[in-house]
Amino acid sequence: MKAKPAAGAKAGAKAAKAPRPPRRNAMTMEDPFKRLGLHGLGGIAPVLLAALASEEPLLLIGPHGTAKSLLLTRVAEALGLEFRHYNASLLNFDDLVGFPLPGRDGGLEYARTPAAIWGAGAVVFDEISRCRPDIQNKLFPIIHERKAQGLPLEGLRYRWAAMNPPSTETDDNGYAGSEPLDAALADRFAFVVEMPGWATFSVDEQLAVIRAADGPLPLEAAQCLADALARARALRPLLEAERAAGIAAYVQALAALLAQANIPLSPRRAGMLYRSVLAVQAAAQALDPLAAAADAALLALRHGLPQRAQGIELPEVKILGAHREAWRLAGVSEDDPLKAILRAVDPAERLRLAVAAETLENAEFSRVVADVLAQLAPGARDAAVVHLFESGAAGRLNAAVAEQAALVYRDIAAPPGFSETAHATSERFKTWRRVLELLSRLDPANARDNLRANAVVAAFQRKELAEPEDAERAFAAYAEMEARLGAA
Hints:
The protein is an alpha/beta fold. The chain has 20 helices and 9 strands.
């Protein structure tokens, strides 16, 4: 008679044959948005989580079909929020507040309908870029102050909006009805998030989207989001206590560098960015404790600028360059001259400070000069180059920047000679006539006037002056820059 194996032995044998689950990095948390059935959002997950944890206004921008409405609806459902979803393109203000009725105290009260905003924990303004201007103005206090008609919206925590990319005169993107947001309204959204497109999804993410099906939200998915929010909220004050000064210095440098790149920030936006960087860093660490602080700051910056809602192009190279320089400067001591130089928004002031800072390393000096010369217009750039050579500062430049400056100075130090044929009715001929008229004002016996004349003629020769007005601007810009820098 054979002995039967014990039940435990059977279970052990089956367990030994079962495939082992894949190992997970114990330091990496689950993506709560993926658990909600929202795929391909990993790149913006820290920003979305930061917006939820901070309860700051959130605007989603993306083409149709990028799951903007689905994302907001799923999140509201997961958080158990009573929320209202409005199509702003069809919205009347009565839909928001109900119908006004005379109140007992002589004021107005509102007959509250099931669709009215009163009592909502979250509100979604979909298609906000297709909203009438008068309705946009009435949404303003709701988004900014959580008030409607001057009355506080008790319990309203989240203000969300969504829109297609705005169409502009220079960018016909197929969304003719999607207008750029008013600058003041756009500036009230702390997070302006561009939704990722299909091409950015991995193969597995694309297949998951294709096979996605509607269904009840699993309780564990909602709990995953709640847990991630709790971690982000707990980390936020700890990070602020540790990094407040450094992040404030980063944002301060960032504001100056972005202004130099023609991406101005309002004082309000600077404060928003400070809070957003902290919030995104906390959210990134809540999802991955090893997340790099600099990467989180860049993510906050990319999705924290209102210009995208206004249809203003934001070149990635400028954003990345400003971030890297600001992050580096945040660690520079206050007495380092480089900090004062790069904080100066005006190119002429940056050049003046750099030339005066003789202790500045040649590599840094060359970088500042190259950046300034790239930003200056014809005339002003020529006067700046003359100042570099006359002051002896050109000797501090590295070879590449020195060569660039020397080519400009060569055409200014000696009268340029050239021959060109232009028709008398052409814009080129009219511009040259204007150059001659301007040069006639100068004194040929004055060495400084000769430099100015050579600079304007060289700019014309390089075809930097396309019309007579360009010649006038270059003529005036040279004199202004020379006066500001001071002739050596």
